[in-house]
């Protein structure tokens, strides 16, 4: 899979940037959610991403609009930078299995 940052796209109306992912597209995250006893779906991925967005209370996190469904993780923002920051946080956890497990446990995806 190419870098997740390439998944930041502009919506058709041109007013919002978004990230749209199927829950199993990020295999390491899906595996960590399942191992923690969670159901792998868009809501579980969203729980982890909200945790990552809010960790440290960055100002950019308030601009994120989460709109996931059972079969898809979706986050939108009027600016591209907050989505890139969020993806970088996820990529750091994906590169460190222990950090990923801690994030999943802290997020408590159900």
List the topology elements:
Layout: E1 9-10, E2 17-21, H1 27-35, H2 42-54, E3 65-66, E4 73-77, H3 80-94, H4 97-107
Antiparallel strand pairs: 1-2, 2-4, 3-4
Helix pairs in contact: 1-4, 2-4, 3-4
H/I helix tally = 4
Structural domains: how many? 1
Oligomerization category of the chains in this entry: single chain
Number of strands: 4
Q: What is the percentage of strand-forming residues?
A: 5-15%
Indicate the low-confidence ranges by residue numbers.
none
Describe this structure as you would to a colleague.
The chain has helices spanning 27-35, 42-54, 80-94, 97-107, and strands at 9-10, 17-21, 65-66, 73-77. The chain is of the alpha+beta class. It has one domain. A 4-stranded antiparallel sheet has the order 1-2-4-3. It starts with 8 loop residues before the first strand and ends with a helix. 29% of the residues are buried.
Please outline what is shown here:
By secondary structure, the protein is an alpha+beta fold. It has helices at 27-35, 42-54, 80-94, 97-107; strands at 9-10, 17-21, 65-66, 73-77.
């Amino acid at each position: 899979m190419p870098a997740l940052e390439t998944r930041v796209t502009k919506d058709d109306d041109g007013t919002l940037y978004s990230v749209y992912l199927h829950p199993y597209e990020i295999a390491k995250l899906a595996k960590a959610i399942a191992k923690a006893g969670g159901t792998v779906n868009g809501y579980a991925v969203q729980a982890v991403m909200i945790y990552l967005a809010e960790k440290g209370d960055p100002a950019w996190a308030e601009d994120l609009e989460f709109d996931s469904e059972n079969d898809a993780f979706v986050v939108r923002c009027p600016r591209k930078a907050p989505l890139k920051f969020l993806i970088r946080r996820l990529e750091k956890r994906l590169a460190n299995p222990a950090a990923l497990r801690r994030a999943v446990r802290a997020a408590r995806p159900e």
